[in-house]
Amino acid sequence: MHTTVTLLAGAPAQLLPARELMAFTLASHIILVPLGVALPLITLVMHYRGLRRNDPVALLLARRWSAVMAVQFAVGVVTGTVLSFEFGLLWPGLMGKWGGVFGIGFGVEAWAFFLEAVLIAIYLYGWRRLKPRTHFLLGLPLPAAALLGAFGILAANAWMNTPQGFTLDAGGKPVDVHIWSAIFTPMFGPQYWHFVVAMLITAGYTVAGVYAVGWLRGRRDRYHRLGFTVPFTLAAVFTPVQFLLGDSIARSVFHKQAVKFAATELVWRTDTHVPEYVFGRLHPDGSISGGIKIPQFDSILAGFTPGTKVTGLTSVPADDRPTATQATIAHWAFDTMVVIGSLLILLALWYGWCRLRQHRLPTSPWFFRGAACAGVASVVAVECGWITAEVGRQPWIVYRHMRIAEAVTATRSTSLWIMLGLVVVVYVFIFGSLLAVLLKMRTNWRLDDARRAVGERTGEPEADTPYGPRARVPAGDPPPDGGTGPGPAKDGRP
User: Most exposed residue of 102, 126, 374, 389, measured as fewest CB within 10 angstroms of its CB?
Assistant: First the structure.
């Protein structure tokens, strides 16, 4: 209760439900984002391997992953559209005043979305209907379309962190907008690449985790081995790169958003030789309780020397900085993200040692247990990254130009609470449906694998190849679509 009062002191009544609604929808949507951004690339890597080595197992995996890609994209359309509406509904002050400056990012994301939808449809249609090389080439633009969508969203968010590309007239309204300057802000580069690599890592570990679970349950065939190895290798290679990018973005925040950096690191007063706290809690009087204190380490991290001066929260008035509670939330989110990243590096090094020095997969069950958990841990790290970025910027929705309280809707708080309840119910249904569809697909694929194994033992031709017609139904047997006699396969081909 004390925390709620602290966060809402002097704020309009509708601010809390508006923030809760936005936070819930964003946290839900971001679960789907890694697969939306990175799964096309992972699928095409597997597709290329299948074509290059004439490997039917790799092609089968690519085809199945493309189906998952389409399903999650469809759900992402719903959750992403809700977020788009919420920007205008919940934050009319932001969009009304600043939409003409940074709204180009949302326009780019919308075009990328339509392009990606068309490309996914073509890619799915191409299995069995196009020549292998033609089909693969038509899929190549998919990762670029996904990255373009991320470009638009990150451009808008980076602008909110470091706004530029405009001047203010006498009435305080932005004029003389320079689009390129508004897009390529000082925080855009660090945020974009940190985000993209995070998506690739998260998607790689998530996909590999599915096959790691199968491995732990005794499924040691080539299908599970290849399904694990390709995405996990991609994620493992980029994990140390992400650690360096994370250090880069933290240093950018130190230079461009000093107060946010102070909140993230629980720095109360500007000073040198500032200690680093691993977790811990900041109190309104500036004291810190709990956590692990490492003397001088925060100054070393910020500027490589203990004498580096780190700006503290008290360098600005209390109304212009995060509260002690908000700073603690941002700090815990940041530290959680760093801890998860460090554990993933250890897992990647374990994998790399076995692959490069011993030329095999690790054999320890503990490795595969870690790999099975890595996907979920990566999603948690992504969530923590957004919490750090957004909570650390408080109380600003546009850094040093507009407060969140100035942007919030005038809609009654009761209506917003009701809307939050409805959204929660709808999202539970949506994600429950997504899980049910994925489980049904898994069941069908296992049945296909069982039929394929029987066909291999009896010498019958394979009935479900990624390129080529399905097996014809023998005369006298009911066709798979429930008809009354022999006919074409399910996809309409004879």
Answer: 126
Beta bridge partners of 281: 289
So what's the pLDDT on residue 369?
Answer: 96
Closest CA to 33 of 116, 132, 105, 122: 116
pLDDT of residue 10: 61
Taking only the tens place, the pLDDT of each residue in 245-289 is 998 999 999 999 999 999 999 999 999 999 999 999 999 999 999
Segments making up each domain of the chain, as ranges: 12-187+413-457, 220-256+258-392
The candidate with the shortest Cα–Cα distance to 33, out of 114, 154, 136, is 154
Tokens of 65: 């992953």
Cα distances from 75 to residues 22, 87, 161, 265, in angstroms, run: 18, 19, 29, 36
Q: What per-residue confidence (pLDDT) applies to 457?
A: 62
Q: Which two tokens stand for residue 434?
A: 């997504």
pLDDT at 359: 84
Work out the number of other CB atoms within 10 angstroms of the CB of residue 441.
14
Dist. CA 336–CA 378, nearest whole Å: 11
Cα-Cα end-to-end distance for the chain: 67
Residues 6+ apart with CB under 8 A from 317: none
3-state helix, strand, coil in the chain (%, to 5): 70, 5, 25
Specify whether the CB–CB gap between 245 and 345 falls below 8 A.
no
Q: How far apart are CA 91 and CA 331, in angstroms?
A: 26
Q: Given this model, what pLDDT does residue 458 score?
A: 59
Contact 197, 241 (CB under 8 A): yes
Looking at residue 405, its pLDDT comes to: 92
Long-range contacts for 247-251 (Cβ within 8 Å, ≥24 apart)?
A: 247/301, 248/190, 248/194, 249/187, 249/190, 249/191, 249/194, 250/301, 251/302
DSSP 296-354: THHHHHHHSSTT--B--GGGS-GGGS--HHHHHHHHHHHHHHHHHHHHHHHHHHHHHHH
Segments of the chain scoring below 50 in pLDDT? 1-7, 461, 463, 469-494
CA-based angle 403:14:422, to the nearest 5?
A: 125
Backbone torsions φ then ψ of 478, nearest 5 degrees: -65, 135
The whole-angstrom separation of Cα 145 and Cα 139 is: 10
Tokens linked to 417: 């609470």
- Per-residue pLDDT of 297-334, as tens digits, reads 999 988 889 999 999 999 999 999 999 999 999 999 99
